[in-house]
Write a structure and sequence with these properties.
This protein is mainly alpha-helical. The protein has a single domain, classed as Multidrug-efflux Transporter Regulator, Chain: A, Domain 2. The protein is about 60% helix and about 5% strand. The protein is built from five helices and three strands; from the N terminus they run αβααββαα. It has a three-stranded antiparallel β-sheet with strand order 1-3-2. The longest helix is centred in the C-terminal third of the chain and has 27 residues. It is globular. It comes from Actinoplanes lutulentus. GO terms for molecular function: DNA binding. This is MerR-like DNA binding protein.
Length: about 110
């Protein structure tokens, strides 16, 4: 089990309640629920069934809110962000693969 101090640096730790997440992102709670419906973010549920959000999820929510504020449909904004995230992960994995397969310079 991780120490509580370790969780402060974990972008994926679900530290924020829906109310706090809405406050931080400047979005409504309904907007955050809709992001879940669009499969952009899937908040963890507390033992009591309440949604809990991570910093990473809050960054995605802010990006979606900005895109919607600029006139992009919510469904399209979510799809774009999902694809951007998948591309970033693929590029990261490609870099790891290239480093692992570089010839030795000895």
């Amino acid at each position: 089990m991780a120490l509580k101090d370790d969780m402060f640096g974990d972008d994926d730790y679900p530290a924020y309640t829906m109310g706090r997440a809405a406050e931080i992102t400047g979005a409504s709670q309904d907007f955050l629920r809709r992001l879940g419906e669009e499969k952009l973010i899937t908040p963890l549920r507390s033992d009591g069934g309440h949604r809990r959000y991570s910093r990473y999820q809050l960054r995605l929510a802010v990006r979606a809110r900005e895109m919607v504020d600029q006139g992009t449909a919510l469904e399209a904004a979510c799809r774009i962000i999902i694809l951007e995230d998948q591309l970033e992960e693929a590029l990261r994995q490609n870099e790891v693969f290239k480093r692992q397969h570089e010839p030795d310079e000895h």
